[in-house]
Amino acid sequence: MASTTSSSTATAGTSSSTTIQTETKRTTRVLSSKLYFNVPQSKVPLIYSPAYNIAFFGIEKLHPFDSSKWGRICQFLIAEGVLDRNRVVEPLEASKEDLLVVHSESYLNSLKNSLNVSIIMEVPPVALLPNCVVQQKALYPFRKQVGGTILAAKLAKERGWAINVGGGFHHCSAEKGGGFCAYADISLCIHYAFIRLNISRVMIIDLDAHQGNGHEMDFSNDRRVFILDMYNPDIYPHDFEARRFIDKKVEVPTGTTTDVYLERLDKALEVAGNIFEPELVVYNAGTDILDGDPLGGLKISPNGVISRDEKVFKFAKDKKIPLVMLTSGGYMKSSAKVIADSVVNLTKKCLIDLESTQ
Q: What's the domain range around 2?
């Protein structure tokens, strides 16, 4: 008995020591990162880079995702006259050291195999490409978007809100990618906020049509993070283990209409707001809930998406909580225009301000 007790005590001590070492490394990496930089007041808290867009030999068209969506959103906003191209914030690319804040060395090494990337991106021909091409044409754009998501938290804390016109890779966890998500930008964003922004409570509001299983696994034992996930249970990823870690779960089955969806969202936001008091909201605003989306299975109108976004921004503004918005999934060409229209509506409702201060 004595030897068993001493053995278990030693194991617990080793585990505790490993955890401390991991957290120390994480803190060191975050504090030495260049992803947080000072953004002049002449810029607005809308983050985008032309490098976000993915184009390699037309192969990207084999996945239903519109890989030029991000650039088209900005084009619509500029054409509408609500956004000045020169006032957009361009992020830095997340480096390997930045990614190691959440990801393991072994996971990042797995992305040096084009077959593994092809499985994550759900585009089989990518497996046949030299990995240097895959890195440049696919993973580099993703890493730029990760940099944008991480920076968005800093801008949101300073300005009240920030929109990364990209990101929202909610199927990727520390050790596993999938569903067109190679890096866990949401998890990375939150860990940076914990360390650099002195934030201790974060609410993820995930309204993409798909379950956000990546961040759910990453924060499965972290009570600093509250997850509200409203998703279609009939579609990918069917991750029943990750569902156990959702704090406020709202399942909206295939065929759910706009009125039902918005009513359920109102109730969910009220419940979540009463349970948890966040210091930052990370809003995963996928547009794959749109009626006709080939992967989402829901029947939400464009005006429904605009109302949804307005409700979430109003929720955060009423509670004076900084909000980060990510554009996440959306598999129709019409998604970009709907997102742009939503941003215009947020401006008209004075929930955001795209006028820079000189």
A: 1-32
